[in-house]
Prior knowledge:
The protein is extended and about 80 Å long.
Amino acid sequence: MEDSSLYIRSGSVYQCKVQPLVIFNILDHFTRRGVDAEGETSSADTRVIGTLLGYINDGVLEIKNSFPVPHTEGEEQLGVDMLFHKDMLKLHHQIAPKEVILGWYSTGSELNETSALIHNFYSKEMGPNGSPVHLTVDTNLTNFQLSIKAYTNTTVSLFEGKEAGFQFLPLPLELESFIEDRVAVDALNKGKLNAGNGMLSELDNLEISVNKVHELLESVIGYVNTVLEGKIAADSSVGRFLSDALSALPKLDPSALEKMFTNSLQDLLLVVYLANLTRTQLALAEKLQKVA
Length: 292
């Protein structure tokens, strides 16, 4: 009696991390999708695809970069510009030679037959042992959310090890952000709210940062006082975090800190004075040339 069992063999990838820059690149690609082959503006349902790049560390995919790949797809046809993909990959390796292909992305949330064909193309690009990841960004905002999901291919085999195809298996996804990303997003938000006010000076940015730190300190002090008064239960994890934060602060004498600040302020004032002096000399030289 023949064994008619169905076997599923998973890949070697267990988790996926993606940086915000990649998501911004994908959204930018979607907003610039342009016109289709018939010269008409692409609809919101038209998806775009591209290549994901980064590193693989102990079964964890770290997606660092991406670039778009032109493609066309219809009910009975699919075309991917493989030459463009290879050219872009060569250019990217000139900047980041250690980054490798991790998979591909697409906008929308649908997984269909064309998705399987594109996934198969990236599987060949990664070699026989490659296990590409498929990242989807739901630009249709289903349930009013920008859903981001990751999938990998899982081989489905019949009896005697014969492969029957593969299916998409969801992967745990983590949006990996750093302090620089938060600063950039805050700057973008400020620019959106104050679009007509121009760029802020360094002194204005410093004042905003100091006020933000002051607000955070007031919030921490309020939390600590509430715990000491017994109004809420103490959280050991929060206590350790605050202790680590305080330990990381440099131990400076107040007089030494004030001296450092005064010296820095004097240097800034000297730069401003020299800049004003140069501006005055240029204006004077221009007037003398006109008189002559």
